[in-house]
Write a structure and sequence with these properties.
Blueprint (H helix, E strand, L loop, with lengths): L8 E9 L2 E9 L4 E5 L6 H9 L5 E6 L2 E5 L4 E2 L7 E4 L11 H10 L8 H9 L15 H14 L4 E5 L7 H17 L4 E5 L2 H7 L2 E6 L2 E7 H6 L12 E12 L4 E6 L2 E6 L8 E7 L3 E4 L10 E12 L5 E8 L2 E8 H7 L6 E6 L7
Parallel strand pairs: 3-9, 3-10, 7-8, 8-9
Antiparallel strand pairs: 1-2, 1-4, 4-5, 5-6, 10-11, 12-13, 12-15, 13-14, 16-20, 17-18, 17-20, 18-19
Helix pairs in contact: 2-4, 3-4, 4-5
């Protein structure tokens, strides 16, 4: 019998609207970042709002064995009685309050209104100490979003909900704020449920992924497992590929490269401005993996990994095939032509070399 962690999040909701229905039965880990991922209209924000109590669905919601909703016993805590922080797409700061008083507003609605330690921690983690006496109108979009996150954290939440917090930002502001999300990921002791439709965000931040489509859960599991499955519609998209946990092992200053160590071997990427020993996430798109029957020789491709063919799956394009590979326990995907499949005579169980043309480290 499977034993569940008492810190888990249990979310079972049923909601029917004209033209849309939500029907989910989920158990999420009570630590780390769980990302609700899917296309627009898949039900991500609706599910998040149900967790917050902002959307009234029938069902049950429980976090760390604390029941916030259970319609079987007519229990429903309204949003203001749920110990959660909510970060919206737009930060919605109070224009008449400076940054410090915006954040203190979150502290006022907490169960510990006189304990400022979480507020101070949030200010430090999000790097906004120099902004405390500024007004919202004086802040960039990225700065406003960081203040909104600090306000949510100041309320001492048991759960942090984030609804596409980067969606309203341009690429420069996204790059500015992502390192702070990394910091929250590393240092927060509370679970985060994060809504996104961007594959790079998911690859960088997620520990657990819930793939939603049409208000239903199509898959739920660790990020590396979900991104490498060939039976999901995700594998048929252009962004299909593998997510790999790695560690910076070395830097090659002469060629401006960094070497990432993972179970499959050493992967070379453009030089990263982080010290050796730093854990990173790497993403290898299926379109950037080619296959060979022999080891690398006289090639410009820096990354070649020995691998075993696990499965062959027809791709959405009639000329292509998706190949799932096992490289020392690391699952990779390769998108190749049917002509190449025939020329190499690939079959499951066959040993090959995966030639990786590009490795992305979301930054």
């Amino acid at each position: 019998m499977m034993v569940h962690d008492t810190r888990d999040i249990v979310a079972c909701f049923r909601l029917q609207r004209r033209g849309f229905g939500l029907d989910v039965d989920l158990r999420l880990p009570g630590r780390g970042v769980s990302v609700l991922y899917g296309a627009s209209g898949s039900g991500k924000t609706t599910l998040l709002r149900c967790m917050a109590g902002l959307e009234r669905a029938t069902g049950r919601f429980e976090i760390a064995a604390q029941v916030w909703q259970d319609d079987r016993v007519r229990r429903f805590l309204p949003p203001h009685r749920r110990a959660l922080g909510y970060v919206f797409q737009e930060p919605s700061l109070f224009a008449h309050l400076d940054v410090l008083h915006n954040i203190e507003y979150g502290l006022r609605r907490s169960e510990r209104p006189h304990d400022r330690s979480r507020l101070d921690q949030a200010v430090a983690m999000l790097g906004i100490g120099a902004l405390l006496r500024r007004w919202p109108a004086q802040l960039s979009g990225g700065e406003q979003q960081r203040v909104g996150m600090a306000r949510a954290l100041a309320s001492w939440p048991r759960l942090l909900l984030m609804d596409e917090p980067l969606a309203a930002l341009d690429e420069a502001r996204k790059s500015e704020i992502l390192p702070y999300l990394d910091t929250l990921h590393r240092e927060l002791a509370i679970p985060v449920v994060y809504v996104s439709h961007a594959a790079d965000e998911v690859a960088r931040l997620a520990d657990h992924v819930v793939l939603l489509d049409g208000g239903r859960v199509r898959a739920s599991g660790p990020v590396a497992e979900i991104f490498s499955r060939t039976d999901l519609a995700l594998a048929q998209r252009d962004e299909a590929g593998a997510v790999i946990d790695a560690c910076v092992e070395t830097h090659d200053a002469r060629w401006h490269l960094s070497g990432l160590r993972c179970p499959a071997g050493l992967l070379w990427v453009r030089q990263l401005e982080v010290p050796p020993g730093t854990p990173v996430r790497a993403r290898i798109a299926a379109r950037d993996v080619s296959l060979a029957l022999q080891g690398p020789r006289d090639t410009s491709i820096l990354n070649s990994l020995p691998a075993r063919v696990c499965s062959l799956v027809a791709d959405v394009h009639p000329s292509q095939v998706l190949v799932q590979l096992d490289a020392a326990g690391v699952l990779l995907l390769a998108r190749i032509t049917r002509r190449s499949l025939d020329a190499l005579a690939l079959v499951p169980g066959m040993q090959v070399w995966a030639q990786v043309k590009s490795v992305a480290v979301p930054r």
